[in-house]
Amino acid sequence: MKSKGTTSKAIKKLTVPVNIGSDHIQGSVNAPFNIVEYGDYECPYTGMAHPIVKEIIRQFGDKLYFVFRNFPLNDIHPYAQNAAEAAEAAAVQDKFWEMHDYLFEHQKALDHSHLLEYAKKVGLDIDRFKKDLAGHVYTSLIDESLKTGINSGVEGTPTFYINGVRYEDSWDLQTFSKTIKRYLGGQI
């Protein structure tokens, strides 16, 4: 989790805008605002934020779209990279969000055998999934996500951006929700 005392007063912006072709997006890209999250499937703070994000998405519905980008903190989370690769392998089988949710709901068990179990539970082609994981097919994609996060000032997970501007306040439900209401003004 980030320390409030280490953030600069300068507004930090997302250096790579949302890409409809490559980002994982929930909701309509025609919504008035978006939230981009850089997260780590093994990070306990990202895990705590997950149900809050789901509630924000539920509350604001068609007023927002949500983007998740991988930012595995490999130095402190030994299974984060494999979990990110599992999510990307699920994405090519059109099951990213199912795997994404499952990984957060079971984030204390992200070893290889559990990832295979989760792939079965979300309905993936297991042979393809195994081949993708064994070949580390999505490593460069995850490395690129890490790079864009670092270039945008991500220092820890979760890190959120609202309409391209880094969100520096608490991500508890009440505070996050109030901020979004301010963004929406009279649109609610």
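Second entry:
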Amino acid sequence: MEWLRQNAFLAAWLAPVVALVVFLFENKKTQFANVDWTRALVRFAFLVALAMEFVPGIDLARRIAANTILFTTLGWIMMDRVR
């Protein structure tokens, strides 16, 4: 259990990979004709920034950049859901 506690950030890095695989499988049916690239890239950036927040060894400058991306994309996702 100690290993899992120390390496819990690995699950956070698995989320962008799973999201990318699901994105590819969902859009393979339509040959990527009707892809909303803005939403896909914003959600992917959100997941990567969220994963960076859980990594314990990231320096302050990268953590601030990840926070900026995280909250900006979170705000965009929330406003997109309202529309």
